[in-house]
Amino acid sequence: MAKQPGGEAIFASYNVHKCVGTDGRCLPERIVEVVAEIGADVVALQEADRRFGDRAALLDLDRITRIAGLVPVPVANGHAGHGWHGNLVLVREGLVRGLRQIALPGLEPRGALVVDLDLTRGPVRVMAAHLGLLRQSRIMQVEALLAHSGGDDRPIVLMGDMNEWRHRRRSALRPFGSQFGPMGRGVASFPSYYPLFALDRIIARPHTILGPVEVHDSPLARKASDHLPIKARVSLEGAIDA
Questions:
Q1: Is the N-terminal amide bond of 206 cis, ω within 30° of 0?
Q2: Residue 127 and residue 112 in contact, taking contact as beta carbons nearer than 8 Å
Q3: Distance, CA of 143 to CA of 141 (rounded, Å)
Q4: Which residues pair with 129 in a beta bridge?
Q5: Which of 104, 157, 155, 152 is nearest to 131 (CA)?
Q6: How far apart are CA 138 and CA 237, in angstroms?
Q7: Rounded to an integer, what is the distance from CA 150 to the centroid of its chain?
Q8: What does each C-alpha distance from 81 to 52, 101, 129 come to in angstroms?
């Protein structure tokens, strides 16, 4: 991928729906192709493993590295999968300086990854999460993520499937505004064949480093999962002093 201008890096979030597409077929190779299409420097995946049983991994990580140039941030999960509660972070070029695996509160088993990266374009803290289906759980999960967002002055990019379609006062995501700026309405990414709901989000602290969030909409992406990926350019050069 061509180098982005001015210290910019492309961040993307993608709920791969356990690699089951809108045609009902489980074809992990389609997900790999879509990830390659996006051309991001950092990708947060959700539902990258099976949810029950041995939680088996679904993706060929070596193939992702070969065709997309991305490598996974390794996690300790105690099962056969690659991710932490299905969350997986892929990185193009950079060093992992720290990793926290958070169990999020709520009735469903949910989790988040907090990864401190030194990318070629600057340091960043990536928070990758998949919030719950119940509003009360999401409220608690947002508070937990905010509690884990500090520690130093690294800029933060928080992304994932937030499972929240409500806006303004009714949104469980409102508390993010205290640190990440106005949430806005987001971009519609679900369902992939006819996007209506902005369930997937990318936000940043400071919010000024985040460019416009866009949907990656391609014929293959509309088939590969029930969510479309979203992406945004993030300006990391000088972000610590922003």
A1: yes
A2: yes
A3: 5
A4: 112, 160
A5: 104
A6: 32
A7: 19
A8: 10, 15, 16
The reported pTM is: 0.93
Question: Would you state the pLDDT for residue 241?
Answer: 46
Spatial distance between the Cα atoms of 18 and 148, rounded to a whole number of angstroms: 27
**pLDDT, mean of residues 34-59:** 87
* Whole-number pLDDT of residue 1: 40
Q: Is 230 helix (H, G, I), strand (E, B) or coil?
A: strand
Nearest alpha carbon to residue 82 among 53, 45, 41, 108: 45
Closest CA to 240 of 123, 149, 145, 157: 123
DSSP state of 3: P
Contact 131, 156 (CB under 8 A): no
Check the CA dihedral 222-223-224-225 and report its sign. positive
- Please give the C-alpha separations between residue 148 and each of 90, 99, 111, 114, in angstroms, as whole numbers: 20, 12, 12, 8
Q: What are phi and psi of 179, to 5 degrees?
A: -115, -30
Alpha-carbon torsion (165, 168, 172, 178), positive or negative: positive
168 Cβ contact list (under 8 Å, min separation 6): 174
**How far out from the chain centre does Cα 141 lie?**
15
Average pLDDT, the chain: 92
Residue range 2-13, pLDDT digits in tens:
445 557 999 999
Nearest CA among 45, 76, 44, 40 for reference residue 58: 45
- Find tokens 């610590």 and name the residue: 240
